[in-house]
Amino acid sequence: MISKKIKFSDISKYLKKKGFVIKKDVKAKNLGKDFNSLSKTLLSSLIIISIFFITPIFKKFFEEKSLYSKDFENNSKNKFEKVLDNVNANKLPKVDEGLSEKYLFEDVLQFEDLPNDVVRLSANTIQQLFKDTNYNLKDVRIKKLVKPVSLSLLPQEMKLIENTKKRKELFIQIILPLIIKENNYIKLDRIRLFSILNKNKNTNAEKNWLGKKFKQYGVVNQDLSTLKIRMDEIPVSMAIAQAAKETGWGTSRFAQEGNALFGQWTWSGDGIKPAGAEDDSTHKVMKFKVLQASVKAYQRNLNTHSSYKKFRSARADFRDKKKPLDSLILSSYLDKYAETGKEYVKILQQIINQNDLIDFDDAKLLPSNMELESLI
Prior knowledge:
mainly alpha; Lysozyme; three-stranded antiparallel β-sheet; 15 helices; elongated
């Protein structure tokens, strides 16, 4: 360390400030020399003492600081790991878990109470009906409006329509209003559900309605989050693609004899046994009295069965991000719908793309009553 040399003039100025008078004489010069020597000695002593006194303090300070930083880092890591462990150990109740099947298809079974005199129209009659009501897919793709034509049965002549394009168009025209109609019912239910969720207190009628919907969607423990995820629409293009795949565009025996548009299996209910099934096989393809029941059962199946939980989770993610449902993405989660798995998904996506089915995703059903008019 380099010490600054103290001049006599500096001392003189200091002493003058304190009221002392310094005269420049020989004695003063000698005194200055003595004082200068003394001040150097004192200053050097102070510096040495300070070094010995301060050094241990600084050393201890830096050591403590280093230890504190290390300890803080370790403790932070340990605390963070403990938090993660607690989160993993005490997870929040899982959403979309469990299924009560008792009342799952109760509203679907109500279609069985319809009169038995359901009329099956011929393909020519249906085509003329569509023509008379100006219902064609070209206009739907542009205007996004669908005529509320609700047919109960497919025409038997579907196989006889040799022109593939015309057969596909007729099939889409028949099932499109049915799919949108079921989605509309779900839309109305979701509107009511969110209205209830936004209230601090609910009426008995609203509580009873919630109880009914918990049963309808097989929700256990009355979990509202699960109901919110399950009670949602199925993309129109995806539903059309699945119906086309499962029925060969309306030509399969299951579609013709049992109004089964989506090839759903049953082990206990009424159904049609597949021709190629083994003798000891117990499963059948579900049959329905009308096409509308098949659509409702299909939507309920995707909205509740554990095999399609990832599909519902992906759909909920679209909702959270306020994005429209993307059938090409959502269909990728249907690999468990058929034994062919990923190959089944690939075929669905090809059907959607090759037939421009996404054009129908935002189509609206012209209202047949005031309640549905609010959805246009």
